């Protein structure tokens, strides 16, 4: 069901990242990856890139007993995948202004991608869209 519908109705996945500094993270996602801000308040930014939704939330807003407020590396064990149409162009843009980026690589499964780590350590695989 490619239109986003399922037996549970229509759906969309949104990822919310808890970050040390919303403005630093916003700069990475907006200025480097190309997300646009679609909502905000003092400690939160809602972002969009095509059909992808991403939220940035200041980690200090979490209650002390919240599981994500614990002092461990954020994003550990998760690879966030973003499919884009112009992976080579985006890679050049990211590589020009961000240190933590891998080379562009054709993978054995046939797609070309690169990996990048954001200011808080969240690990992204940026890949070309499947046809």
Question: Can you describe what's shown?
Answer:
InterPro entries: Glyas_Bleomycin-R_OHBP_Dase (IPR029068), Glyas_Fos-R_dOase_dom (IPR004360), VOC_core (IPR037523). This is VOC domain-containing protein. Residues 11-129 form the VOC domain. The protein is an alpha+beta fold. The protein has a single domain (5-128), classed as 2,3-Dihydroxybiphenyl 1,2-Dioxygenase, domain 1 (Roll). Helix content is 17%, strand content 37%. The protein is built from two helices and ten strands, in the order βββαββββαβββ. A four-stranded mixed sheet has the order 3-6-5-4, with helices on one face. A hairpin with a 5-residue loop joins strand 9 and strand 10. The longest helix is centred in the first third of the chain and has 11 residues, at 22-32. It is globular. The model has no long low-confidence stretch (mean pLDDT 89).
What's the layout of helices and strands?
Layout: E1 5-6, E2 9-10, E3 14-19, H1 22-32, E4 36-41, E5 44-49, E6 52-58, E7 79-84, H2 87-97, E8 105-106, E9 112-117, E10 123-128
Overall number of strands: 10
Please bin the fraction of helical residues: 10-25%
The first-level CATH class name: Alpha Beta
Order of helices and strands: EEEHEEEEHEEE
How many domain modules? Answer: 1
Question: What is the percentage of strand-forming residues?
Answer: 35-45%
Judged by helices, strands and strand pairing, the structural class is alpha+beta
Radius of gyration: 16 Å
CATH architecture: Roll
